[in-house]
Amino acid sequence: MSFEPFSSITSGTIVLSQNNIDTDQIIPARFLTTTSRSGLGKSVFYDWRYDAQGDLRADSVLDAVPPESHQVLVAGANFGCGSSREHAPWALSDFGFRVVISSDIADIFKSNALKNGLLPVEIDNAAHAELLSMPGQDVTVDLEKQIVTYGADRSASFNVEPFARRCLLDGVDPLGHLLNQMDTVQQYESARS
Prior knowledge:
The protein has helices at 23-26, 46-49, 87-95, 107-115, 125-132, 162-170, 174-180, 182-192; strands at residues 8-11, 13-16, 72-75, 99-102, 119-122, 139-142, 147-150, 154-157. Strands 1-6-7-8 form a 4-stranded antiparallel β-sheet, with no helix packed on it. Strands 2-3-4-5 form a 4-stranded parallel β-sheet.
């Protein structure tokens, strides 16, 4: 699978300061009836965004600003915990997010996000607390330098596993990376036969 290559993005933030946001809150189980990545954005955080009649809640921070200008989600600690559903990063990406920032992101969610073009960024607690207190703040997330900059002169570094970083920079998942190497693989196989 391929997606838009990621090098650097500058965007406003949407803040969900709750800790322990699990994958069932991100995309409720009743919406897991598809294997398509498209269309899941309308159901992201469904129970937080819609009332019992299916109408948008007036207090939904996710619908208060246009997603195209707020592509960075700043979330509380232990984001993406719970079940290992790959639909969670699919839904966040389909909604318009390119980055999730937290002080702590669940390992399985992080792995699924990286394989699907969504950048999970873990920063130190002090910088995380600052970003949580500044909804709408413009941030620049630079994957090449592995740094988040915000405010007049604030920054926080982060690390991404090198292979996952390479895939994001190239705009491919791990299988796409391998397929891009087919000429080299075929040359190797031809030399060995």
